[in-house]
Amino acid sequence: MKKSTICILLAVFCGMQMLVAQVGEICKWDSDRQAAIVLTFDDWSPGQQPIVPGELKSRNLNATFFIETSLVANWNHDWPTVLTTAADGNEIGNHTKSHPHLLTQNATQLNTEIRAARAIIDGHVLNQKATSFAYPFGEGSGNTSKDIEIRDSLKASGHIAARGVSVGNYGYNFATTDDDYFKIMTYPMCSGTTLDNFKGQVTQIKNGGGLLTVLYHSIDNANNSYSDTWYCQVKQTALQAQLDHLVTLKDQVWITTFGQAVKYHKERNCAQLTQTGTTGTTMSFTLSDTLSNNDLYNQPLSLKIFRNGINYSTATQNGLPLVIDGVVHDSIVFRAVPDAGEIVLTIGSLGFEPGVADNAGIRVFQDASSSLLTIQTLKPLLNANISILDLSGQEVLVLKNETVLSAVRMDVSSLSAGMYVVRASSGETVRVQKFALLK
Ligand SMILES: [Zn+2]
Questions:
Q1: Predicted pLDDT at 385
Q2: 205, CA 20 to 30 Å: which among 218, 248, 374, 420?
Q3: How far is the CA of 286 from the centre of ligand 1 (A)?
């Protein structure tokens, strides 16, 4: 044996659990963004409809409008304007029928204000279900028996979450029980809220990884053309500056509707990604969650699948093509819906982006015995991880933290004949080489 060959190392075979863990992960938020922000507009007050949907649309943003059904007509905005707003991708949420203090309502009144109001919205807005709720005056997210009765009424009428008026939810684990989703907090905007205040909230949620809902009431222009002056007015120019700031952060923060953010978070908290098979050309797995209502909980989750040197050419779910969002470090990111069929990745080619890999820097030789593989690197590698991958990118053998002066040996007697990839990584250096194992 040459002196520079460090040792003959016994290969470690990864157990099934470990292999599953190495397939990839479910992103915390859509497209692997750091946090989520939802803009919510309460009461459908008179300046909102003429100003907000247009400002959102011009920036390709969406928001949630919590409407009181009895005020839709009263404040001079009829249902067609609500429908137009919904058709742009905005969410129409339930903010009761007449905006009462819910803590003072009896069971019959709660039924009218919660269940009947939802039915009115659903009867008009046919392209979505009003499953999101905002408490008038924030009443209902507390812990008295009346609060609990209110939340029971929300759950029984098919709502999945509710927003109050107090501040919070900066960390990712803001909801660990179903009831917690009915106590979602917010950041209330008012006339005195500066752009720096707003930016500070955005930074805080970015750092915390949680869900920031922002609460708006009156919106109007410089001349108060819509007479929307009744509560905590935010001027159109201030709103524009806030939206412009969000647009600059779209790659880092998911700006979405209340319903989509809640569904994503709920699904992700009970979802599992499981590898189900590999062939020489495909890798397949399932994404499932424990939420039983698949018609409601069909928000796509972003998956980050580790490439391990594989370029996947296509992704499908239940035979239908999925859009691959992109490559983040050495993972591909795409969206799939839990419990909506098998996900299959098709392998295109092997390799890394230029500058990341040095395919020429590694050689593989098989001993005559066929049970030992010599992996030679042309330059020394410190603290390297040496992996043997099958063509689906699954790690089948691994050596960790090796110092390779020129070569290492691996026991490959557990592997059957076929094509494999050897991957050696040390810090930023990644070397990968495809080889045939003969038996
Ligand atoms: Zn309100």
A1: 87
A2: 218
A3: 42
Rounded alpha-carbon distances, angstroms, from residue 240 to 201, 214, 244, 254, 438: 17, 14, 6, 18, 65
Question: In the prediction, which pLDDT does 224 show?
Answer: 96
* Per-residue DSSP letter, 243: H
CA dist., res. 18 & res. 22, Å (int): 6
Domains of the chain: 5-21+357-437 (2.60.40.3080), 34-250 (3.20.20.370), 271-350 (no CATH)
User: How high is the pLDDT of residue 375?
Assistant: 85
CA of 93 to the centre of ligand 1 (A): 12
Q: What is the pLDDT of residue 430?
A: 74
- Among left, alpha and beta (phi > 0; psi -120 to 50; other), residue 54 is alpha
Tokens encoding 86:
């919904």
Q: Is residue 373 classed exposed, middle or buried when 0-12, 13-18 and 19+ CB atoms within 10 A define those classes?
A: buried
Q: At what angle do helices 236-248 and 195-208 cross, to 10 degrees?
A: 30
134 CA distance to ligand 1 centroid (A)?
Answer: 8
Low-confidence stretches of the chain (pLDDT beneath 70): 1-22, 73-77, 309, 349-361, 369, 392
| Helix axis angle, 117-124 to 79-87, nearest 10° | 70
Angstrom distance (rounded) from CA 278 to CA 104: 60
Per-residue tokens: 387: 């992996």
| pTM over cut 0.90 | no
pLDDT at 318 (0 to 100): 93
CA of 42 to the centre of ligand 1 (A): 5
